[in-house]
Amino acid sequence: MAQPDLAWLRTLYERYSSGEVQAVFDYLSPDVEWVSNRVSPVFAPISGTFRGEAGVRRYFDGLIRDWSIDRHDMLDFTVEGDDVRVRNLVGATYRKTGKRIETVTHHHLRVKDGRIERFEEKFDDAVVALGCEAECGGDAGAAAKLPG
Hints:
The chain has about 150 residues and is an alpha+beta fold. It contains 5 helices and 6 strands. The C terminus is likely disordered. Strands 2-1-6-5-4-3 form a 6-stranded mixed sheet.
């Protein structure tokens, strides 16, 4: 992927940061694979692998139901062929507890012809657990107390 082709990616992140979730769907490949912290007791309702637009919609429905995201800043990105890695600073409040957290997320995207074919997100479960306490599902409270 050539450098000029990244303008759409910056625009996508800017739109998402301003609350436009639909922006993500404008750039998905029909058979996209969307992965968020595969084995996360903290994020159990929206962890795993989601396929296609319907799967990604289920992911976002769960995310929006549980979290209010008030910050999503792209810090930097690197490109190697069709692989793009993006680091973001995310601020969010867990709706059930009212607790706000900030964490760095790492996105790994495989992009082809201006479409996201695969997306993988990683973040620090322990930080997220601080917002959830025992409410996130699984053993979130224990995850927050694990030694660093």
